[in-house]
Design brief:
The protein has helices at about 15-30, 50-60, 80-90, 105-110, 130-145, 165-175, 205-210, 225-230, 235-240, 245-250, 270-275, 280-300, and strands at about 5, 40-45, 65-70, 95-100, 120-125, 150-155, 180-185, 200, 215, 255-260. With about 300 residues, it is an alpha/beta fold. The protein binds aspartic acid.
Length: about 300
């Protein structure tokens, strides 16, 4: 039987999405994990704190054997391809690889080339997809008691470079969320392809915030900006697009604030919002371990 793969939200059935979300919430409330005897590898070619460590924590809590391969210190530096690296790990007994890479679309490209017995989880590919982040964000909202079918969710900031936004739009749409809105400076709006087609766009943050139940702030991804987008003035960005306590006060009093991390404090949001009572940022981090446990269980069982 072919191993299971999680490459993007569209590749998941609604059944599987619901199973993962329910299980993540149950695990966060103390459900017993199903013990696993498989071997998984974290293969990270881009820096990561939350995603890499939470996959490792999730694997450890399930009793999986987990190998961490740091791309920068692997034979990739000698010219080995990612495909050969994954085949090599599989030959040594790795059954599922968790891959993070700066090349957009790499997981889709690798899919047909991988040994059939090797599972793959996309842990973020360039500006492409980050399905496990979207799943953990949804699990966080559900655990928090947010009623998704009526919730108004605003995603704000550097949408152009955000795989988190793309995966969240896909997942929230599949889950039938009340409304999704996008807000950000024109220079950082996504190229309007099918992934963002038809999604409401706001001209400014204040109008996006009015009536929002959830605001997902995105990191300004300076490392992905080319000359055309890198010339932004960050103080000016903060003034127009930064979520401050003053701005948040214009939203509903129970509006939740999310951010996938890592944060640029003082750019996309102010420290008092990040650390304030409406912030779910560390709850997202906590839920990331339970969600990734649920994902491992679903893919390895
Ligand atoms: N940690 C998230 C990602 O890897 C968000 C970010 O880096 O801004 O995409």
């Amino acid at each position: 039987m072919s191993a299971k793969r999680l490459i993007d939200i569209d590749g998941l059935s609604l059944d599987l999405i619901e199973t993962i979300l329910e299980r993540a919430v149950a695990l966060s409330q103390g459900a017993e994990p199903f013990a696993q005897t498989h071997t998984v590898a974290n293969v990270f070619f881009e820096p990561s704190t939350r995603t890499r460590v939470s996959f490792e924590m999730a694997a450890t809590r399930l009793g999986l054997r987990v190998i961490n391969l740091d791309g920068e210190r692997s034979s990739i530096t000698k010219g080995e391809s990612v495909l050969d690296t994954l085949k090599t790990l599989h030959a040594m007994g790795v059954e599922l690889a968790v891959l993070r890479h700066e090349q957009t679309g790499i997981c889709h490209e690798l899919m047909d080339e991988l040994p059939p017995g090797l599972g793959l989880i996309n842990a973020g590919d360039g500006c492409g997809h980050h399905p496990t982040q979207a799943l953990l964000d949804a699990a966080t909202l559900i655990a928090q008691g947010v009623d998704l079918p009526t919730a108004k969710v605003v995603i704000c900031g550097d949408l152009r470079h955000s795989r988190v936004a793309r995966s969240n739009v896909a997942l929230l749409t599949r889950l039938g969320v009340g409304e999704i809105g996008l807000a950000g400076p024109e220079a950082l709006m996504p190229a309007m392809g099918s992934d963002f087609e038809g999604i409401k766009r706001f001209e400014d943050l204040d109008s996006a915030l009015a009536n929002a139940d959830v605001v997902m702030m995105l990191r300004v991804q300076k490392e992905r900006m080319d000359a055309a987008h890198g010339g932004l003035d960050w103080a000016d960005y903060h003034q127009h697009w930064g979520l401050t306590a003053e701005r948040l006060a214009k939203a509903k009093p129970d509006c939740w604030v999310m951010h996938p991390g890592p944060m640029n404090r003082g750019v996309e949001l102010s420290a008092d919002v990040a650390d304030g009572p409406r912030s779910l940022i560390l709850t997202q981090v906590r839920m990331s371990v339970f969600t990734r446990m649920a994902i491992f269980e679903a893919l390895l069982s």
